[in-house]
Amino acid sequence: MGKAKSNENKIEINYAGYLFILPAMFFFCFYILYPIVFICKNSLFSWATLSNMEFAGMSNFGKLLTDNTFWITIKNSVKWICVTVPVQAAVGFLLAFAIEERIKSNKRGKNPLRTFFRTIYFIPVVTSVTVVAIIFSKIFQPYQGIIGHYLHAWFGMSPTINVLGNADAALWGIMLANIWEWTGWSMIMYVGGISQIPEDMKEAARIDGANTFQEIIHVFLPSLSSVHKSLLMLGIIGSLQTYALIGVMTGGGPNHATEMPGTYIFQKGFTENQMGYACAVSVAILLFALVLTFIQVKFLGSGDFMKKEDD
């Protein structure tokens, strides 16, 4: 009997399952885990090339505390997150609501107009970031730019307005380009979420006399809570990774007014050859992202919003 029990309790290893996850684990370790370990390790050295490294301890991190430009990147990142993420989500939801709920479907439950508008608003998402940056650079260009032209024609303002050359306005101009580019992504996320809301729930709200605003507040927004959370998480990650748009439009200028972590790391590492310090900045940004993620999980939960509310 004892031998039979030991055979029953024996754990069988499914080697085939490990083979299936092996490619994903390889890419995770090689492209994510190893670079993180590499950056953390080399942030403790002063170096320009791997063949010329001097141990610096925590001095690179000490420099961060007095680096005004680094703190400008943090401030710009927070401003970027607080502006672009909610605006993209709000506009994306309104577009999704208008497309899904205000464009009536035919007898087959479809409408070509829905497909048309989804495609039109999603095109900026699949457009090259460089192309978007060049287009908006031309829009904001003084004399020949569309913005300056219409401000001069409608309000009599000077056509020499240089949005991207103004330290107070440059970041707002780039954020406008980012909102235009990524609102379509929020729209598609909300389209998927709205399609999962039961029709009887919507019908019950209408029978109870709810108008459109009340229906949005009490039916749609609570039911789409998991989409809100996903967009918040993706928005924070995307904001901290912003590089190409700013790199093409302003390069972090004027006077670091549009500097973001990505552009600052590139400048320190590849322009000024301070690779150790660039690694330290990368580690600091990673910790900043972890703090934001912890705050999100702490107050919004790690699972579905509706389950959290039920608890």
3D structure, described in words:
The chain has 311 residues and is mainly α. 72% of the residues lie in helices and 3% in strands. It has a two-stranded antiparallel sheet with strand order 1-2. Helix 3 crosses helix 14, helix 5 runs antiparallel to helix 8 and helix 11 runs antiparallel to helix 14. The C terminus is likely disordered.
Could you report the average pLDDT, rounded to the nearest whole number? 88
Can you tell me the overall shape? globular
Strand content: under 5%
Q: How many helices does DSSP assign?
A: 15
Radius of gyration: 25 Å
Q: Oligomerization state of this entry?
A: single chain
| Alpha-beta classification | mainly alpha
Secondary structure: helix percent: over 70%
Order of helices and strands: HHEEHHHHHHHHHHHHH
Intertermini distance: 46 Å
Instruction: Please report the total strand number as a whole number.
Output: 2
> If strands are numbered along the chain, what order do they take across the biggest sheet?
1-2
* Main sheet: strands, sense, barrel: 2 strands, antiparallel
Low-confidence stretches: 305-311
